Amino acid sequence: MHISAKVDYAVRTLVEIAAADSPPVKAEHLAAAQSIPHKFLEAVLGDLRRAELVQSRRGPDGGYWLARPPEEIAVADVIRAIEGPLASVRGERPEEVEYGGPAKPLRDVWIAVRVNLRAVLEAVTIADVASGALPDFVGKLTADPEAWRRR
Fold first, then answer.
1. Nearest Cα to 88, choosing from 79, 99, 98, 96?
2. Which of 65, 89, 143, 151 has the fewest Cβ atoms within 10 Å of its own Cβ atom?
């Protein structure tokens, strides 16, 4: 799975907002706190606003805040808002692809990949990341030395 800079910035932005003492949070603060180029951040915030993950207000008392509690925003929600479906094959959803001959079972492999992505990304919320209290299963997965081995 490729996690784009835009998705990475979007998740980090939401985590920064969730951890803020008193939203709204200014874009300038978000950019500086997470080392995100300001112009890029503005595009990310626009996508997050259109996806109704953040709300904003202009002016001296303005800024950004989460549109719903951070416990209700899964990392998967952010990825879908920024990039679309979690898993696709040549731009199609895995269940829509068809193969013939010996490649026929490959669709099941792509479905299984999506299921596993969902298992992690739909279970981890912005609140989990902001608090540093990730679900236990994430700790178990990352405790395995094989998880850290490059292949």
1. 96
2. 151
CATH architecture under which domain 5-148 falls: Orthogonal Bundle (1.10)
Q: How many helices (H) and strands (E) does the chain have?
A: 7, 2
Distances 120 to 32, 76, 80, 141 between C-alpha atoms, Å: 29, 8, 14, 10
pLDDT band, very low/low/confident/very high, at 32 (cuts 50, 70, 90): very high
The answer to whether the beta carbons of residues 110 and 94 sit under 8 Å apart is yes
Residue type, 147: A
pLDDT mean over 20-38: 95
Nearest 5°: CA angle at 123, between 27 and 92? Answer: 85
CB 55 within 8 A of CB 97: no
pLDDT-based confidence at residue 13 (cuts at 50, 70, 90): very high
pLDDT of residue 22: 87
Smallest CA-to-CA distance from 132 within 11, 2, 19 is with 19
Q: Domain locations in the chain?
A: 5-148
Q: Which helix (H) or strand (E) holds 56?
A: strand 54-57
